[in-house]
Design a protein that fits this description.
By secondary structure, the protein is an alpha/beta fold. It has one domain: Uracil-DNA glycosylase-like domain (Uracil-DNA Glycosylase, subunit E, 3-Layer(aba) Sandwich). The chain is 50% helix and 11% strand. It is built from 10 helices and 6 strands. Strands 1-3-2-4-6-5 form a 6-stranded mixed sheet, sandwiched between helices. Strand 5 and strand 6 form a beta hairpin. The protein is globular. The mean pLDDT is 91. Bound molecules: uracil.
Length: 232
């Protein structure tokens, strides 16, 4: 028998469950082999290959101090050929534990928000400004963001989304290179390196303050409209 304490075993089961639920959400009841399934286009296959190769190239990254405290680098997940790219701030404890973005409470809320505008997690790709968890969930520091942004930029070049949704001020300020308030960035179409970008509240902010929900609903409906205009 394992020497793991019962709490650790419980945690392991909980994370396996989150992971399997996420795979189910992404791929449906049977997991297709991404590289051989006939429903997957050659373009998607190539993007998946490039993302895998890119992920492997910096899986042991120690370019900033977050490398020393992380458990898992959280590269990003979802459809490599997604036309909608969702970008958050950085991994929290659950993401650090599993290696997947937005799998904790904020992630469950994000999944529900996407569902409300007819997206599954299989339709979109999800990544973060920084790929390693800042200790105590503090905001990523400028040097950490500066080291990690080239990774995200390359990821975006591979995926080539039609539109980006930035979640929260950290993601929006970083991608738009400004210090504007979240409120002032909402309801507009910005661009990131030529790709249209829309801003809304971070789901963790919604968990703390449900008063942001009506504005978020307005933002994601605006996002859906723009997506439908761009992706036909
Ligand atoms: N918050 C984020 O910004 N990203 C995650 O992946 C999880 C929580």
């Amino acid at each position: 028998m394992s020497d793991l304490p019962i709490e650790e075993i419980r945690k392991l089961f909980a994370f396996t469950r989150v992971y399997l639920d996420q795979q189910h959400e992404l791929f449906g009841p049977s997991l297709p082999d991404l590289m051989t399934s006939p429903e997957i286009s050659a373009e998607a296959r190539e993007k998946a290959r490039l993302l895998d190769e890119f992920q492997a190239s910096f899986s042991a990254c120690q370019n900033c101090k977050l490398g020393k405290t992380r458990k898992n680098l959280v590269f990003g997940s979802g459809n490599p050929n997604a036309k909608l790219l969702v970008i958050g701030e950085g991994p929290g404890a659950d993401e650090d534990e599993t290696g997947y973005p937005f799998v904790g409470r904020a992630g469950q809320l994000l999944t529900a928000i996407l569902k409300a505008i007819q997206f599954t997690r299989q339709d979109v790709y999800i990544a973060n400004i920084v790929k390693c968890r800042p200790p105590q969930n503090r905001k990523p520091e400028p040097d950490e963001v500066a080291e990690c942004m080239p990774y995200l930029k390359n990821q975006i070049r591979i995926i080539r989304p039609a539109i980006i949704l930035a979640l929260g001020a950290t993601a929006a300020n970083t991608l738009l290179n400004n210090t504007d308030s979240l409120g002032s960035m909402r309801g507009k179409i910005h661009t990131f390196e030529g790709t249209p970008l829309i801003v809304t509240y971070h789901p963790a902010a919604l968990l703390r303050n449900p008063n942001y929900k009506p504005d978020t609903w307005q933002d994601v409906q605006f996002l859906r409209k723009q997506y439908d205009l761009l992706v036909r």
